[in-house]
From TrEMBL:
Membrane topology: Multi-pass membrane protein
Organism (species): Clostridium collagenovorans DSM 3089
Family membership: Belongs to the multi antimicrobial extrusion (MATE) (TC 2.A.66.1) family. MepA subfamily.
Keyword Secreted attached: no
Name the UniProt record assigns to this protein: Multidrug export protein MepA
């Protein structure tokens, strides 16, 4: 009965109300979940005497954290999108197979990441831009994170499926539970027990453990539609491939982001030293806070788009996209205004060193200058992901992060107009502009095609109704003649 109610809701309830009820919990959850890393950076950046080096050391580990998140999204987003489509088609058994296979994939990926990470920890950190001064902080932090990989993938990888199961509030609560634990433990372990960056890492994996336990309970003993069942843990090739084809887009985006961070770290180290990496760590934190609400909108819209696309209710898909784009643009515009007007106040939260603060203020104003237009780009990539068009989604995801941004980071600092660090800051803004133009063009062409499919589907319904009415008329006429 509950499954039918949720299906009816996704297919019939007014889109604004539906999008609000699904997106608000996701937005809150994503903002709070973002605090996992950002709270760490705030406390680490304020460690007495060594805050500058410590926050730079954590900045060195960001590419690794991004890769771990990428595997969580590969499994989590791919699974949840397929579950939404399967439920839209009325195939609950397939949805449960998807969920079971996701659990097994999470376990396998966690073991591989943990082993490789611990074995090659030193060469990885040095390749990612660690200096002799920052290596010790980076190593202390990421070693503990590697041990907790299974908790991270468990919480990220399965949380998406809770929304597809029809319970966005439960998904939000799992994030709140984890992030709340992290916020409480950070100051206690970092300052109270004088554990420094190690304390931040322990707080992070402990909070992810609690979140993962909550989610696992929901899908086994809780009030979920779908259940994790032992027979479904056995991997099936077509199930795994179906998850990866959709999940590959956000995974590629995270890997690309990691590559950008590695290239940027080394360029920043060359043109501005360790302090420049610390400045970019702060800038990336601000960017993350600005865009995470849009990711929340995408997560809320994904089951609505996936279900209605599967049910061929294309007009509802278009309406969901319209509201998503408008709200996303409003959010990033507000974030842009705050960054441009109050950069000093925002950056001071992370670190109060005058030199670092001055560098970060100039960097954030330039790097995020195109923030108001990136909402459409993020919505576009997620839309193609939700309807199963993985190749287009992957292209749009890689467009900014690899095809445009990396060449600009390498080229612009060498030009007289953008010499040195300014070249790296301008690379972000220019990349945002070019990639958004391309993404928006592809997105609106697809939506226009969707409009044609809506009209075609309506015509088909009219023909069917007309045929049924004609048959009914003939039957009545035959009965009257008798």
């Amino acid at each position: 009965m509950k499954l039918m109610d949720n299906q009816k809701r996704l297919g019939e309830e007014k889109i604004p109300k539906l999008l609000i009820s699904f997106s608000i919990p996701a937005i809150i959850g994503m903002i709070v979940n973002t605090l996992y890393n950002i709270i760490d950076r705030i406390f680490i950046g304020n460690i007495p005497e060594v805050g500058n080096l410590a926050i730079t050391g954590v900045g060195i580990t960001l590419p690794i954290m991004t890769i771990i998140l990428g595997f969580g999204l590969l499994i989590g987003v791919g699974t949840s999108a397929r579950i939404s489509i399967a439920l839209g088609q009325g195939r609950k058994e397939t949805a449960e197979k998807l969920l079971g296979n996701a659990v097994t994939l999470i376990i396998i990926a966690s073991i591989i990441i943990t082993c490789l990470g611990l074995i090659f920890i030193d060469p990885i950190l040095k390749a990612f831009g660690a200096s002799a001064d920052t290596l010790v902080y980076a190593k202390d932090y990421i070693r503990i994170i590697f041990f907790g990989t299974i908790f991270s993938l468990g919480s990220v990888g399965l949380n998406h499926s809770i929304r597809s199961d029809g319970n966005p509030k439960v998904a939000m609560l799992s994030m709140l539970l984890g992030a709340g634990t992290n916020i409480i433990l950070d100051p206690i372990l970092i300052f109270g027990f004088n554990m420094g960056v190690k304390g931040a890492a322990i707080a992070t994996i402990t909070s992810q453990l609690i979140s993962a336990i909550w989610i696992f309970y929901y899908f086994t003993k809780g009030k979920s539609i779908l259940k994790i069942k032992l027979p479904n843990l056995k991997l099936e090739r077509h199930i795994v491939l179906s998850i990866f084809t959709i999940g590959m887009s956000p995974f590629a985006m995270q890997i690309a982001q990691s590559l950008v961070q590695v290239v940027a770290n080394n360029s920043l180290k060359y043109y501005g030293g360790d302090m420049a990496i610390g400045a970019m760590t702060i800038i990336s934190s601000i960017s993350l806070m600005a865009t995470m609400p849009i990711v929340g909108i995408n997560q809320g819209a994904q089951p609505i788009i996936g279900y209605n696309y599967g049910a061929k209710k294309y007009d509802r898909v278009r309406e969901t996209l319209k509201y998503g784009v408008v709200v996303a643009t409003l959010i990033v515009t507000l974030a842009f205004l705050l960054v441009e007007i109050f950069p000093n106040t925002i950056i001071q939260v992370f670190n109060n060193d005058p030199s670092l603060r001055e560098m970060a203020i100039r960097g954030v104003r330039i790097y995020l200058f195109m923030l108001p237009i990136v909402g459409v780009q993020i919505i576009a990539s997620s839309y193609f992901q939700a309807i199963g068009k993985a190749k287009i989604s992957m292209f749009l995801s890689l467009l900014r992060q690899v095809l445009i941004l990396i060449p600009l980071i390498l080229l612009l600092p060498k030009l007289q107009l953008f010499e040195g660090l300014d070249g790296i800051w301008f690379a972000g803004a220019i990349s945002d502009f070019i990639s958004t133009i391309i993404s928006t063009t592809i997105f609106f062409v697809s939506v226009k095609h969707l409009k044609k499919k809506t009209a075609s589907h309506t015509d088909d319904l009219d023909v069917t109704i007309s045929k049924n009415n004609k048959l009914l008329y003939n039957e009545i006429s035959a009965d009257n003649s008798k």
